[in-house]
Design brief:
This protein is α+β, with helices and mostly antiparallel strands. It is built from 2 helices and 4 strands, in the order E-E-E-E-H-H.
Length: 78
């Protein structure tokens, strides 16, 4: 599973780990993504979405129908 939110589009950020001696090594900052299952009443089925925690809060506030519409507008298959 890639660390990518279907709703907000959040992706991993990249940077460096800096040790005590100031030696730098590459690292990756992954967003907190969860797989959640929502009931989609218009289609009479469940949809499984990969969402960041901010995406989950957005679904809670705007509703699953509007969220799925936004995801489909981005061109992501649900």
């Amino acid at each position: 599973m890639s660390a990518h939110c279907q709703l907000t589009g959040r992706k991993p950020g990249f940077g460096n780990s800096v040790s005590h001696s100031h030696k730098r090594t590459s690292r990756r900052f992954d967003p907190n993504v969860q797989r959640k299952r929502y009931w989609l009443p218009s289609e009479g089925r469940y949809v499984r979405l990969t969402l960041s925690t901010k995406g989950i809060k957005t679904v809670d506030s705007i509703g699953v129908e509007a969220a799925v519409a936004r995801i489909r507008a981005r061109g992501v298959k649900v």
